[in-house]
Amino acid sequence: MKMPRVKKEEIEERVYGTKMKTIERKHGVDFGLDGELELGVFLKKQGYAPLADMLEEA
């Protein structure tokens, strides 16, 4: 069974729209943020490029 092709923009929208509480729970970290904050908004405010950079500092 073939996987449907997904555009890069669609993937980024899904990932960067992820709530911080989901990331905290999944990775076992607590950033002390509002859990409803979206990842994309947080990354822009903090000047992080990818999620991996943020997790390395947690």
Structure notes:
It is a single chain. The protein is mostly helical and 58 residues long. The chain has one domain (8-57). It has helices spanning 8-16, 20-27, 39-46, 51-57. It is globular. The N and C termini lie far apart (39 Å). The model has no long low-confidence stretch (mean pLDDT 78).
Helix/strand-derived category reads mainly alpha
The residue-averaged pLDDT reads 78
The structural domain count equals 1
Task: Give the overall shape.
Answer: globular
Instruction: Tell me the helix content.
Output: 55-70%
- Major sheet description: none
The helix/strand series, from N terminus to C terminus, equals: HHHH
Number of helices: 4
Low-pLDDT stretches are: none
Summarize the structure.
The protein has 58 residues and is an all-alpha fold.
Question: What topology does this entry show?
Answer:
Layout: H1 8-16, H2 20-27, H3 39-46, H4 51-57
Keywords:
58 residues, 55% helix, mainly alpha, 0% strand
